[in-house]
Write a structure and sequence with these properties.
single chain; alpha/beta; TIM Barrel; two-stranded antiparallel sheet; about 15% strand; binds zinc ion
Length: about 280
């Protein structure tokens, strides 16, 4: 069934970080939930505002509800990186169970003020909120946020942000960048440990998970990371598969046959990543 992020955190405490997978088109969706079903784990499906507009908020929500019921999987539908409070309200109204307000480009004071507004609105409707302090570098929706090395979350900013906004989850910058798949991130584990020790009631979120080695990922999860975003790897793998199958297609080849290998690859990634996020 559809659950809030807070509920998934509570039910999985001590067991795992929950994988949050970016869906880009409806075709990917059944494969994602089938992967979660096969491993018997909950899943977070997240969309950018662009994907939500492309598929349609209502169609996304009803598709996920149908699949969650059919497969008996716990799902959280989450809006990723959204800077527009009106769009977040639209998502909540449509049935999203979690939203991320990204005020990381604003001053800390403005970010806190806006995030608190979103938390008050969302939590009253049993919808969870993720916030972000500091900037996680790399490309978002094809727009380069920062080409510099990752910027690290300042602990004192994070503590104040959590205290004053009451967010359920917090994206922290510990060395990962968005869109990274050619090289591996250098994680600041000491920072993660410090943040984790001082914010026991908020679920920390790792963005840019594709660039993290398996070994480092296990360590991040053991140090308290509760939600791990996987986006780039899904997009990249889907393109690799359809490039291969479409190159061999004729106008009479069934589209279904051309998309199936890509869908299967998505399922495999969900299984592989979700298994990696289990606490040993
Ligand atoms: Zn992100």
């Amino acid at each position: 069934m559809l659950k809030s992020l807070k509920q998934l955190f509570e039910e999985n405490e001590g067991k795992r970080a929950i994988g949050s997978f970016n869906v880009h088109c409806l075709e990917m969706l059944p494969a994602m939930l089938e992967g979660a079903k096969e491993l018997n784990v909950p899943i977070i499906i997240q969309t950018s505002p662009g994907t939500a507009a492309y598929i349609g908020f209502d169609l996304l929500v009803s598709s996920i509800e149908t699949l969650a019921e059919r497969l008996d999987v716990d799902v959280c539908l989450h809006m990723d990186h959204c800077k527009d409070i009106e769009v977040l309200k639209e998502a909540i109204h449509a049935g999203y169970s979690s939203v991320m307000y990204d005020g990381s480009s604003l001053s800390l004071d403005e970010n806190i003020q806006n995030t608190r507004t979103v938390v008050e609105y969302a939590n009253a409707k049993n919808v969870s909120v993720e916030g972000e302090v500091g900037t996680i570098g790399g490309a978002e929706e094809g727009v380069v946020v920062s080409e510099d090395e990752a910027i690290y979350t300042k602990p004192e900013d994070a503590y104040r942000f959590v205290r004053e906004t009451g967010v359920n989850a917090l994206a922290v910058a510990i060395g990962t960048t968005h869109g990274q798949y050619k090289s591996k991130a250098k994680i600041n584990f000491a920072l993660l440990e410090e943040l984790s020790a001082n914010m026991p009631d908020v679920g920390m979120v790792l963005h840019g998970g594709t660039g993290v080695s398996d070994e480092d990922m296990r360590r991040c999860v053991s140090l308290g990371m509760k939600k791990v975003n996987v986006g780039t790897e899904l997009n990249k793998s889907y393109i690799e598969e359809v490039n291969r199958t479409f190159a061999e297609a004729t106008p009479l080849t069934s589209l279904r046959k051309l998309l199936l290998p890509a869908n299967n690859r998505i399922k495999d990634i969900v299984i592989e990543k979700s298994a990696l996020f289990q606490l040993m």
